[in-house]
Every structure is written in C-alpha cells, then in structure tokens.
C-alpha cells in the first residue's frame, strides 16, 4: 500500500515499505552522522526500505535502490561473507581413509593423482670388512596417476605371512628425490636412484595396524 505524507513542505511517497517506519526509526536514522533529514527523505522517495537506509547511512554515498532484477550487492547493501563452514566441500571419506592408512606424509589426493612423501633407507656400494654396506635415507616425493591404477600384489610384514605392509601397484609413480643424497658420488647416486625408481615407485606402504580390508574398498572407489 502506498502512503502520501509531508516533510518540511515536500510531498514524499513512501513506497510499500516492508516494515512500518515508526517515529523511533526516523529518530535513529536522523541521529546517524552520515545522514540528515533531507538524505532520509531522498532515499524514501526512491523506494528504499528502512533497513536499506540504515545500511546506506553508515557511509557517505547515495545509492539508487535495487530493482527486482538487481541484487542487494549491486544496490550497495553489504552482504555477509560466507564462513568456512558454508563454503567448504564435504570431506571425501575415501580420501580420508587412504590418508590415514598410507605410511608417508604430505599426502595429497586429487581427482587424478595420489601423492605422498616418504624417507627410504637404501643400502648401496660394496660391503666393508665387517660385511656392512653404506646406507642413505633420501626423502622422496611419489606421485601416482589414478587412471588405470590397480593392485597387483600385496607386501606382507613377514614375507608371505602377517599383516599387509604395502600395495604393489600396476603403474609406477613419478619419483622426485627431494634431499638426502648430497654426499653420494655419481655411482652411489645411480645405484640409489635405480632402487627408488624400480622398486619403491611401484609400492604404497601402509601404516602398521591398518586392516587392508578397510583400505581396499577406499582405494578401489578412488581409482575406478
């Protein structure tokens, strides 16, 4: 319903306000240092609601009212910023299971890849007089492509027995040695790199105590 009234000798049309503007509402708006009576009358004549006028009077600009086709943001009304709870995607259960199960760190799982970092201790070079070989423990980043990835064999803690300690996969990972090989000579580097690329790049190691029955369906769901 439209209503016509007078303010300071001017005729002002108050257009369909959603909430009736009481005397206390006018008083609160007039008390705002950024708006005077003329400002309020101007906004009323343009069809602003009491809530819109209150919001606008927190600044110094005059803004035209929103039409049916204009969003509140376009009309100058500040919109609440979504909280992380509102914008975050629901957790991926399969990814969570694998992240908890892989014996590694900095684990990242996307729609196309699975990557993790791990320290691998590898013996290299000839034996010394006591029958021991040198050992190096480089930090390696492995990235598996999920497309076509499948389990071809299971490694167990005690040879053919005991709990599953790793999954041998159909595709090799892309291996990147991050550190830990600085002291290797050329022959040592070649030997260690060969082990990492040929053996370790096929296996995803699992944490002790993780039942494989829990890991398999999560892995299958992620790679299909």
Describe this structure in words.
- This protein has 224 residues and is an alpha+beta fold.
- It folds into two domains: 1-88, no CATH class; 90-223, no CATH class.
- The chain contains seven helices and eleven strands.
- The strands form four sheets. Strands 3-4-7-10 form a four-stranded antiparallel beta sheet, covered by helices on one side. A three-stranded antiparallel beta sheet has the order 8-9-11, with no helix packed on it. The chain has a two-stranded antiparallel ribbon with strand order 1-2.
- A hairpin with a 2-residue loop joins strand 1 (3-7) and strand 2.
- Helix 5 crosses helix 7 (212-223).
- The radius of gyration is 34 Å and the shape is elongated.
- The two termini are 61 Å apart.
- The relative contact order is 0.11.
Task: List its traits.
224 residues, alpha+beta, four-stranded antiparallel sheet, three-stranded antiparallel sheet, 11 strands, 28% helix, disordered N terminus
Biggest sheet, spatial arrangement of strands:
3-4-7-10
- Please give the radius of gyration in angstroms: 34 Å
Number of helices: 7
Helix content: 25-40%
Beta-strand residue fraction: 25-35%
Q: What's the number of domains?
A: 2
Q: N-to-C terminal Cα separation, in Å?
A: 61 Å
Question: Which stretches are poorly predicted, pLDDT < 50 over at least 5 residues?
Answer: 1-24, 29-33, 60-67, 81-91
The counted number of beta strands is 11
Mean pLDDT level: 75
Cα shape: elongated
Q: What class would the helix/strand composition place it in? A: alpha+beta
Please summarize the sheet with the most strands.
Answer: 4 strands, antiparallel
Order of helices and strands: EEHHHHHEEEEEEEEHEH
